[in-house]
Amino acid sequence: MKSGSESDIEEGGGLRRRPTTEPEKDAGGETSDDEATETTAMLGSGETAQGFCSRKLCYAIYVLVLLLIAYLLNQLDRYALAVVTQPMAQDIHYGDQSCLVNSSSQGSHSEVCTKIHNEESCESAITNTSDAPCTWDYNGQGFEYQVLAGPIFIVVYTFFGIPLGYAADKTNRKNLLAICVIFWSLMTLLTGFAQEFWHLLLLRFGLGIGEAGCTPFATSLISDYFGESQRGSALGVYNFGIYLGFSLAFAVGNFITQANINNQGWRWVFWICGIPGIVHGFLILFTMKEPERKKSIKDEPESQKVNEYTHLSGWQKVKFAAKPFLNPSLLMICFAGAIRNGAGYVWAYNVQPYFNEYYPDTNVGFWMSWIPLVSGSIGVLFGGFISDRVVKKSGPVARVWVVIISLLVAAPFAALTLLVPPPWAFISLIPTYIFGEMWVGVTLAVIVELVPSAVKTTAVAIYFFIITNIGGSMPLLVPALDHATNLRIALIILYPGMYVGGALFYFLSLFVIKRDIQKVQERESAEKRLLDDGEPTDTNPESKQTLYGTMDDE
Q1: Distance, CA of 158 to CA of 179 (rounded, Å)
Q2: How far apart are CA 421 and CA 423, in angstroms?
Q3: Residue 258 CB: number of other CB atoms within 10 A?
């Protein structure tokens, strides 16, 4: 039984007692930063809830669910194109043509049609049989499709990510996130009305603008709603959205297209995907509270050098946020993440075309509607959980080892997916996703630990700018390798092959990351002294320059 003067509050995963009276004041009569942070606007005032969780924790979980759904819709709208590209291409006319199975013919003719590689032979197969088992038509692949999947989306997605990340460091993040969700959902909705290829280009361009703000805003909000000891797990939960949305894209894309509602086929996929996002954007706008930004040091004259970031111009802030990425460890991690991210883009945008070409009778929607969801979700949650535990013993270096081992374990299973027929191909995907997707939340946790807290949102945007520009353009290699060899070999090189390549660069980062971790630990130690003593104990200008960067040359 608690006394009337005390209540439990969450702190670092546990509970501690604190008086319910007004916050303590320092010697100058001002409320201390620590107390103000706990008692201000994030959750409002009021007594803590009894039972399952405190009011603060319950609301933080609610916010995490909102962010998870936003990311789900983000991925759903992004990958719907990959699932319906064949019927869309046959309707709008873009990309390559090939000999396809005639869906109106009786019996299974996939082995006959898929072995034909030119129009003349396909026409011969049509005329030599009574029920026309094959048809020469658009297959939804080729350079135009890869442009839609990659550059037209990726370029704007990455370039808008940095200014949106910078805006999040200065303005209301939840409002910007709500606007982004509504905007990209509107672009998805309008895609269902497209009649020409340039309509798709324009709407895909707009989709990239809206989706660019999702993860930078969400990551920053999560870092302020959850403490350091829970941040990795919270980011892992948030990244469930990747697999929820990706799996749902296959379910909606395949089954809704097959239903052919009002003879509109693939168009209903985009209408069904777009409408919920508009509703969710308004839900974020009106029910999510903007949290108070966590500060690592006090805003006092003694720490003016550390907080000089707040007095910089916009371009100077971007350069300040980019400075940590000049460290060899972060550069190597970004390049490793770009290679691994590229493998993911290649597979995500070519899994449906791959099975359409080699196994056209396979029900891809049945398998892909749950395998990425279950296996990928286990992977990101398990990765965040493991990294949070091992980091307590070995620091951020242990997080990198988690990524390396997981990618090397996943690579052989990814290769099997492309070497064996269904259902074993899909079964091989289960361990591929479990181990291969652990890198997502773990790498983000490393990034936010190695940059100043004042610019973490901008730094996350820069990180995504790097890995998405490099990795997101990798699908352009698929048509070239496909024409030189075949689609299967192209995917083996760019899917499991890039898993191994990414693991190699993560491993190389270990040779320099220890030095950079030491710098981060020195900075954190200096900040702790500022918090405890109110003034820095290390007055060496060179030390400050090493820890925080000098602004004099900006």
Answers
A1: 18
A2: 6
A3: 12
Helix (H/G/I), strand (E/B), else coil: 101: strand
H helices within 307-455, ranges in order? Answer: 314-322, 328-358, 364-368, 371, 377-394, 396-419, 424-436, 439-449
- Per the CB < 8 A criterion, the answer to whether 113 and 133 are in contact is yes
Give the pair of three-digit tokens for residue 112: 């006959």
Average pLDDT for residues 458-472, to the nearest whole number? Answer: 82
Question: Is 503 within 8 Å of 326 (Cβ atoms)?
Answer: no
Tell me which amino acid residue 141 is: Q
pLDDT at residue 196, rounded to an integer: 94
- Mean pLDDT over 343-366 rounds to 90
Residue range 144-166: mean pLDDT, rounded? 83
Distances (CA, A) of 41 to 8, 225, 371, 417: 19, 12, 40, 50
Tens digits of per-residue pLDDT, 22-74? Answer: 444 444 444 444 433 433 334 333 344 445 567 888 898 999 999 999 999 99
Taking Cα atoms as reference points, which of 84, 86, 114, 83 lies closest to residue 101?
114
Q: Measured at the alpha carbon of residue 76, what is the angle toward residues 185 and 152, in degrees to the nearest 5? A: 70
CA 17 – CA 77 distance, rounded (Å): 45
3-state helix, strand, coil in the chain (%, to 5): 70, 5, 25
Residues 6+ apart with CB under 8 A from 367: 422, 423, 426, 429
Buried-exposed string 327-337: b where 16+ CB fall within 10 A, e elsewhere: bebbbbbbbbb
Find the farthest-apart pair of alpha carbons in the chain and give their distance in angstroms, rounded: 95
Q: What is the 3-state secondary structure (H, E, C) of 189-231?
A: HHHCCCCCHHHHHHHHHHHHHHHCCHHHHHHHHHHHHCCHHHH
C-alpha gyration radius of the chain: 26
Residue 121: which region, alpha, beta or left (left: phi > 0; alpha: psi -120 to 50)? alpha
DSSP structure string for 33-76: HHHHHHHSTTT-SSPPPPSSS-HHHHHHHHHHHHHHHHHHHHHH
Give the separation between CA 280 and CA 282, rounded to whole angstroms: 5
Give the chain's count of helices (H) and strands (E): 25, 4
Using CB atoms within 10 Å of the CB of residue 515, give its burial: 0 to 12 exposed, 13 to 18 middle, 19+ buried: exposed
Place of tokens 């995963």: 13
Task: Take residue 366 and report the two structure tokens written for it.
Answer: 């049945």
4: Cβ contacts below 8 Å, ≥ 6 apart: 20
- Spatial separation of the C-alpha atoms in residues 498 and 411, rounded to whole Å: 9
Query: How far is 273 from 518, CA to CA, in rounded Å?
Result: 46
